[in-house]
Recover the amino acids of this structure.
């Protein structure tokens, strides 16, 4: 055999295109209210405040009047897109057709963008009033301190979960059997909870329906709260001037996602460009807002 046989060595490449590890789609969309809109803004809800019964102190006295407070919430759209081109010349050099996988990749990015809108709205400024000209900030009284239940700053703990739920109960935002209470937290914070005896003990780790709190070692529900894992929370300056992650607990009616144009995909050929490449285009128009401050709490966790 010739020593030059190495000239004929071949290289074999995969015919399978896999997405790199990432959050696939939205995890928070199902945890908020949602509505379709048209126009430059939408008003998801008209609000009327509580009133108080008045005592009657005399007979045949003139009748007074009680005026309930009223308000209106607004949600505003933002446009997003993700165009990707696939050159026909490149396609001749590939063993696979990448369009469908790249579209899936873009749709997942759109889902993550929806989560970013919701997370920003959870702790952001809401627009209220007749025309949306009033800015309403997060309630300072609905913040669970980073050192709640401890002498120093801590991660996410049962004490903090209890305090956040107590605030919602105090606000009359939930009832004792509300099934739609959610808490979003990162992997670090969820791991903090696994160090709590109340979470991992068999005396505590079943839900009302008898299902386990832990699923494959990940906490899914505890104290009537549904936990959602997200690595998109970021960090901020906590109430003790340190750097912490803001985790949020809310009742579903307290958050809203407005959809002007849901996640849409289009694959078309660009005849205006050389080689007439294919374009995979994913786009959407959406916005999010906090509907009621008393239905949302923020938990600082180191």
């Amino acid at each position: 055999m010739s020593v030059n046989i190495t000239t004929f060595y071949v290289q074999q490449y995969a015919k399978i295109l896999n997405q790199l590890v990432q959050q696939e789609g939205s995890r928070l969309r199902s945890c908020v209210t949602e509505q379709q809109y048209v126009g430059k803004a939408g008003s998801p809800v008209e609000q009327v405040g509580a009133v108080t019964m008045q005592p009657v102190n005399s007979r045949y006295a003139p009748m007074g009047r009680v005026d309930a407070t009223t308000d209106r919430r607004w949600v505003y759209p933002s446009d997003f897109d993700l165009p990707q081109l696939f050159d026909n010349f490149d396609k001749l050099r590939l063993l696979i057709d990448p369009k469908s996988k790249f579209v899936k990749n873009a749709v997942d990015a759109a889902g993550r963008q929806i989560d970013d809108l919701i997370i920003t709205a959870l702790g952001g400024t809401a627009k209220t009033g007749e025309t949306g000209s009033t800015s309403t900030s997060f309630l300072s009284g609905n913040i669970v301190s980073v050192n709640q239940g401890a002498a120093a700053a801590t991660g996410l703990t049962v004490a903090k979960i209890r305090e956040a739920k107590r605030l919602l109960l105090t606000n009359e935002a939930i009832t004792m059997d509300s099934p739609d209470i959610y808490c979003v937290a990162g992997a670090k914070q969820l791991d903090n909870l696994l160090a709590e005896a109340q979470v991992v003990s068999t005396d505590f780790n079943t839900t009302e329906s008898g299902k386990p709190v832990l699923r494959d070692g990940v906490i899914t529900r505890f104290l009537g709260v549904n936990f959602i894992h997200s690595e998109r929370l970021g960090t901020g300056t906590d109430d003790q001037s340190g750097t912490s992650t803001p985790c949020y607990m809310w009742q579903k009616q307290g958050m809203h996602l407005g959809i002007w144009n849901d996640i849409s995909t289009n694959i078309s050929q660009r005849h205006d460009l050389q080689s007439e490449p294919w374009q995979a285009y994913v786009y959407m128009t959406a916005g999010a807002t906090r509907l009621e401050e008393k239905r949302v709490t923020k938990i600082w966790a180191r």
About this structure: The chain is about 20% helix and 30% strand. The longest strand covers residues 255-269. The CA atoms of residues 15 and 94 lie 9 Å apart. The mean pLDDT is 88.
